[in-house]
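Ligand: uridine-diphosphate-N-acetylglucosamine. Inputs:
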Amino acid sequence: MQILVTGGLGFIGSHTVVELIHRGYQPVIIDNLSNSNIEVLQGIKNIVGEIDLPFEQIDLKDKLAVTNFFNTYTDIKGVIHFAASKAVGESVQNPLMYYDNNLTSLIYILQNIVSKKDMKFIFSSSCTVYGQAEVMPITEISPRQKPVSPYGNTKTIAEDIINDTAMATDLQAILLRYFNPIGAHSSAEIGELPLGVPQNLVPFITQTAIGIREELSVFGNDYPTPDGTCVRDYIHVMDLAEAHVVALERLLNKKVSQKVEVFNVGTGKGTSVLEIIQTFEKITGQKLNYKYAARREGDTAIAYADTTKVNETLGWKATRTLEEALSSAWNWQENQKQHTI
Ligand code: UD1
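Predicted complex:
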């Protein structure tokens, strides 16, 4: 069965493509390579074998190209939509680029698939839609609040667009709200490839440990948390990839109880920045160069998921440990030294 994966050469997209193939699906990848590398395609094939893996370099803001794609690939039964810009700081500098890129592409895809019978849609949402949540852990019925960045706001608006579209058409969708995806495939053939200076914690740690960055700044050590540093819910990207396939199968097997279902995808466990550093040092045997710095604007002290709904309704649970996630991220970093700036 053919499944379109937009942004299929990106971090989460590429791992999901691998998982789809393992489960017997035929992914078709669209990616505009704006924040990914064509070499990822070979990385995927190095894992799954030299199979036929269709790839189309399309910018989803090109309406005609999107329509032509769907007129060509008529057997597609589902879409997993990852393609989006995701740099929080950049979105503050250039909000129009973010609203245009993340929402125009979504609208063009939806316009093309709503007329198709039984089309399934999975959307890459984020815990950022909860804003600065007051009650932990965060459940799916926690109120959505204004996200701290235009990037985050594109996720909230996208959820609304999908909801409204599903109410008016046959579309069935699942929104997956990710917490903090980290790690890499165990083969170290694919992983996270941040362009320039990483904004996210784990790529910054691995790049510091390997000598590309001099020092990690820990943003704030005076938060109301046990060790004063922020707490997040770090989920192994392969667990997250599996959640997408399980969600897809729920849609394909007509198990959904609403036209649009929402799931938090995390481990349910909070880990502080210091704990991440200590675990990383333990598994790699290295001392990480870090210092305490001022809080980063927009950061919330604590965010971790209540995973009851995703565990019970979707029948999915994160199984990989933090140690596995960090050691896979480290293996990946060591394996692709030559690619980083
Ligand atoms: C951010 C985005 C989120 C997105 C997620 C995954 C917001 C507010 N956050 O989450 O939407 O889904 O990335 O890409 O929109 N830290 C340091 N030093 C660093 C980098 C990070 O101390 O150099 C700390 C941060 O303060 C934070 C934690 O590490 O407490 C995790 O940061 P990061 O990896 O950037 O993820 P989030 O900000 O939680």
